[in-house]
Amino acid sequence: MAVQINPSILSADFARLADEARAVEGADWLHVDVMDNHFVPNLTLGVPVVESLAQATGTPLDCHLMIENPDRWAPQYVEAGASSVTFHVEAAAAPVRLAREIRAKGARASMALKPATAIEPYEDLLPELDMLLVMTVEPGFGGQAFLDIMLPKIRRARQLIDKHGLQLWLQVDGGVSATTIERCAEAGADVFVAGSAVYGAQDPADAIRALRGQAET
Ligand code: DX5
Ligand code: ZN
Question: What is the CATH number of the domain that holds 36?
Answer without folding.
Answer: 3.20.20.70
